[in-house]
Predict the structure.
Amino acid sequence: MDFSKFSKSNFFGFFLACFTIFVWGITFVCTKHLLVYFSALEILFIRFILAYCFLFILKPHTLKLSLKENFLVALAGLTGVTLYQFTENLALDFTTASNVSIIVGICPIFTALTSQIFLKEKHLSFNFCLGFCLAFVGVVLVSFNGKINFNLSPKGDILALISAICWGFYSLFLTMINKKGYTTILITRKIFFYAILFMIPLMICGVFAENPKSTAYVELSSILNAERFSSILNWILLCFLGIIASGFCFVAWNKACNILGTVKISTGLYLIPVITIFFAAIFLNEKITFMGTIGSALTIIGLFVSSKK
């Protein structure tokens, strides 16, 4: 084995993962602003339409898959994009953001579990479990950030748990897809294609949602409202979420998983709340407390411990 080539490949994988985690960590700040003008479901739909168009421009080739492979890609789109994003957003209607952040923060453990159960890969080592515990405590502290307010809300908490489970299955399907050796951009675009198809029924149901304040609500009269689309800042944020955070970063994440392994890379998701709280302090004037600082440190330590053999 050419060790120097192996090292460069690993470095490239880590770079892609770090960049993706960094971008995903600041998407909350962008979404926070857009929620004034759009529902969460509308943002989700527009975001992935832009992402699909971006990837089509990059590589306008057709990817031919067998029926079985199409089914596998469709499951990835359903679990990792449509259900994961939608249930996470919908959970905020019924429980606090802290609860959602904490519960979704256990995504890496579900990724390890699905790989161990279905692919017979052994990831649940002592270091992995110890690192998970440290990072989970860190995520709890970061999410609270000085505000001890953990309210049990079964409906919202179950939705957040479903979201974490969905990401675990997405990681499983992604690992299986990556073994086929397809071009990352083409396979990611195909995943988005199926995700958008699954979003269309949600958009239709959103028009008839009973609660106008729900993240699942889509106001029929505002769909063609040109005023919110006339804002340059809105377009900049929508393009950032669609082209960078979805189009580019999903490709980068899938490539990093292909290089270094899905389970190993997934532990980096612990850092997203840390990045979010930092940028929320800058752009949303949210204070970083001592508890948040300790939580950030524990999360980073947990990340390194879980990755150590």
